[in-house]
Design a protein that fits this description.
Two copies of one chain form a homodimer. Chain A is an alpha/beta fold. The first copy, chain A, has 14 helices and 17 strands. Chain A has helices spanning about 10-15, 20-30, 45-60, 75-85, 95-105, 160-180, 200-215, 240-255, 265-280, 290-300, 315-325, 325-335, 340-350, 400-420, and strands spanning about 5-10, 35-40, 60-65, 90, 120, 125, 135-140, 155-160, 185-195, 220-225, 230-235, 260, 280-285, 305-310, 355-360, 375-385, 385-395. Chains A and B meet through helix 1, helix 2, strand 2, helix 10 and strand 14 of A and helix 1, helix 2, strand 2, helix 10 and strand 14 of B.
């Protein structure tokens, strides 16, 4: 099966907006065993869009477009496609009623221009938009005049805003595909999230032992960024699920505590879940991560039940005032030291009366490094009822990467402690 | 002039990686007056890449590809292109020496596979890679056998990793384009960053007064996300710069303090710059933004000189302990109240001995709302030597959007105070 994706919008080719549709749609489809073969991005230009859709319909079984379905004067994809397919547009009363209802529920007057969104090419199925006014459209191009073999193709038109497109895709497009274009072979996939080792070392540990399963059809993939490596396990056809679970068991055995979660889990979601389950609380004392750890934890709903307090103690003065770090520790060891990380974690735990406290002190750069403590030097500490542990790390990266990697190391220090 | 961009990499079509090249390259080109007409994304497949490059060379004056230049077995773009253009590959000694030097400087042994990157199609210019081993390539396709009119096209091959591609683009590609393919008309553009009003209200204020300039050739564009609207002013040809500055003056006059910066400035970069210039310090007391304000400020190099301390006081207990918020205020007004925001700002300023203190207290959701204080209710406070100001806002969004918008409102409260 061949699938092509066409993203339209002049703002995309002017570089004003990041195209997040490509990754999101491709990932949704890949997880079900579909493969996208080509993605194209075009400006809001009728001739170019018609030419590209014609081209794609000549090759692909499924063509998905995004954008150009709204009410404004540059939203003309609906009309261009109707013209290309030689279909009349007609006013769909049910869609019109839904658009009217959308405005009525929000106590807003419906602008006259909104009506245009209820004009539908003949034979198109309407994909309801629960989060906006422009419906999606699904058109079976049968017979397909653009394809040498005359085989039919499906053409699906989706609105541009992600918060409209995404639910519509999950609720309407995927069921339609399951009925009309089921994947050639059902795919079962599972992603294990790991932290603590780089991609090549993860590969070194698992590729050999998994070789037999790979020869038997297991698909093994890696996706890495600094501080995190995903291991993707997939298989097709009958027995796919048991093969993937066999591989999962093997990877978990080989990587042990390096695996922290599956699928969309993150270190922060894992921690908030575990701490909530156990009724435990946490405090944070951040210096060089500057609040990023608190920010990550509080992105998780329910964080307020576990995070008692976070202190971003950039200055020595604030380390002393809020965390009781001693002048002796600061003078003798320096703010970036094992001793200060230790006192920060202990101070945060005591002053916030939390079960656990994480601390971070280091040199994010670009300034502030020295010969003995170069930019990238960092200490990560954890205090709990069993004592205090401090780990040294060296993260010689740009400032934002430094903060990200260090926050991973700190969150992971707590995660490993929670396993014990 | 027609420009096409081809991004290659199977990971892009599997949805594992976000394609950031498109936006970055398009924006660089747009800022100089070039227009990208089409962008395509393809898997690492020789036949498909050759077909797409041939297609693009049949239409475009400039074709840029990204990816597939590295040393591993799926990096074959160099070979596929040489084959398509019917050019021999030869070993370029200078490039080989640079690759060897790259490893030597890092005290690493050069793997045998790295040599493949020094094989260059005949007639190609080498674009040096200062941050990796795979050089870029620039090929003048002259005569161009794929184009009906036989006109030459430029084909530029760039490596995939952003930290290699971006400097190479700025240092080698742009100068090459300036010489070989200067933009049809020079563009002068300027982006004004605003916060505090939505896109349609910004447009309402400026579109009318700018109408005459638009008729005279000014290009006026908007790019909006919640909490921020960019106004882009551009003009072409002689007098472009003075026309844009005329428009800039008009917009600044019409929008007044809503404009906070130009170009790549952010609220946090603006604040760190101003506070540094004035030798002033800041403290933060965040509840529902959960450290995001501290995180944003500390992403800026030099933040350590202005941020004395940030307190993420999620719990009432921590508001009392660290910020001296009174039990009376919490009991009578509730944690999310004008009074508590006021006491938080005052407490943070006093306890951190900072010149300014920002405070935030609100309900991020999804839980925690009530009839009188629904999810989205938030108070933002600022304490300085002139007193304390508190602003109520209502941000009924999902959790991450809520945090972002609220952090914008808090940072902007301080920015406006610094203007006075």
């Amino acid at each position: 099966m061949r699938i092509e994706l066409i993203n339209t919008g002049s703002e995309l080719l002017l570089g004003r907006v990041l195209n997040t549709h490509q990754q999101w749609i491709c990932r949704q489809l890949a997880d079900l065993g579909y493969e996208v073969n080509r993605q194209t991005c075009l400006a809001d230009d009728g001739g170019q869009i018609q030419a590209a859709v014609r081209e794609s319909l000549s090759r692909a079984d499924l063509v998905i477009t995004t954008g150009g379905l709204g009410p404004t004067s540059d939203d003309l994809t609906r009309n261009w496609i109707a013209q290309l397919l030689n279909r009349e547009l007609f006013l769909d009363q049910e869609t019109l009623a839904q658009i009217e209802q959308y405005f009525a529920q929000r106590h807003r007057t419906m602008p006259a221009t909104a009506q245009v969104q209820a004009w539908i090419p003949a034979g198109a199925r309407v994909l309801r938009n629960a989060n906006g006014t422009a419906p999606g459209l699904a058109i079976e191009v049968r017979p397909n005049p653009f394809r040498g073999d005359g085989l039919p193709s499906w053409l699906i038109l989706l609105p541009g805003p992600p918060r409209e497109l995404r639910p519509m895709f999950s609720e309407s497009v995927l069921p339609l595909l399951a009925r009309e274009l089921p994947p050639p072979e059902k795919l079962f996939s599972l992603t294990l999230k790991t932290t603590g080792l780089g991609e090549s070392l993860v590969e070194e540990k698992i590729a050999g032992p998994l070789q037999k399963l790979v020869e038997a059809g297991l698909e093994l993939g890696y996706c890495a960024r600094i501080g995190e490596v995903e291991v993707r396990l997939a298989a097709r056809g009958g027995g796919a699920e048991s093969m993937v679970h066999l591989a999962e068991d093997l990877v978990r055995q080989l990587l042990g505590p390096l695996v922290y979660g599956v699928g969309d889990e993150s270190l922060e979601s894992t921690l908030v879940r575990i701490l909530t389950e156990r009724g435990k609380t946490i405090a944070l004392a951040e210096s060089c991560t500057g609040g990023m750890i608190a920010h990550r934890l509080t992105n998780m709903p329910g964080a307020s039940a576990v995070l008692k307090c976070g202190l971003v103690t950039y200055s020595n003065e604030s380390k002393r005032n809020f965390l009781d770090v001693t002048a002796a520790a600061l003078n003798e060891h320096g703010a970036v030291s094992e001793m200060v990380a230790r006192q920060m974690a202990q101070g945060a735990r005591r002053k916030c009366r939390a079960d656990y406290a994480l601390s971070v002190t280091g040199i994010a750069g670009p300034g502030g490094g020295s010969e003995s403590k170069p930019v990238g030097t960092v200490y990560v500490g954890l205090a709990d009822d069993r004592g205090t542990a401090v780990e040294p790390h060296f993260n010689p990266f740009d400032r934002e990467t430094f903060k990200w990697v260090t926050s991973q190391q700190a969150l992971d220090l707590l995660r490993r402690a929670l396993r014990a």
